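Work Package 3 (structural annotation) set out to generate three-dimensional models for the target panel prioritized at the project kickoff. During this period the team completed the workflow that converts sequence records into discrete structure tokens, so that structures can be stored uniformly alongside our sequence database. As a representative example, we reproduce one entry of 240 residues exactly as it appears in the project archive.
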Amino acid sequence: MSDIPPPQPPRSDNSGMPVPSLQDSCYVNAMIHFYRGELGRIMIWRQRLDVTTTWAITSTTSIITVAFSFPNVPHIVFFFNLAFVWMLLWIEARRYRFYDAFRGRVRMLESHFLVPMISQSQQLLDGEWRRLVCEDLILPSFKITAIEAVARRLKRNYVFIFAIILVAWTLKVFIHARSPIDSVEHFYNALAVHALPAWIACVVYIGTILTVGFLVVYVSRRSSEEINEFSGGNASLWRI
């Protein structure tokens, strides 16, 4: 009677989890459905981001139209424009944190599951990525801070909206001023509206510029880009 070798235990990675096989149809099908579900989830959150940006653009366009159509409308209307856009930016940043959290799962699956499937490399399935995905499924967590989310959305979209508001505010002050403005002092005095002192308007005006500039520089230095530009000659390989 020949000796039957004992079954070999499944190979484990550094995290102690058994390494799956690319030939296991149950595992592959489950991962494909998991990927499709997560992809659909981030698409929903991506649409929610577009909605808040649309609101910001629509409200800014409406306020600018009213401000320049009626000379009697004071430039204080841009105060409310800035406040409304900041509120929308904060709402969009909260939504972006959820989008980024689920996008992290999708990128994990693309990098560590789809790449091994495409390249047919079993070794690429090794690593602790499956343990990280399991932990994130059990206890979901944000991948970026709130301030970084605000800065990212500001850099992508809202910096242009704030720039348009500030330019429109400046033009409104110059065009509809009671007296010609030919100096910085005259411009400062023109910022006053009825009982609102000029220094409050000046603080809001300069504070918005400094805050937007700081956040854009902050995210540029401390956050990596979502999509990298092609470098070298790799771009030619993707031309159809």
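The chain is about 65% helix and 0% strand.
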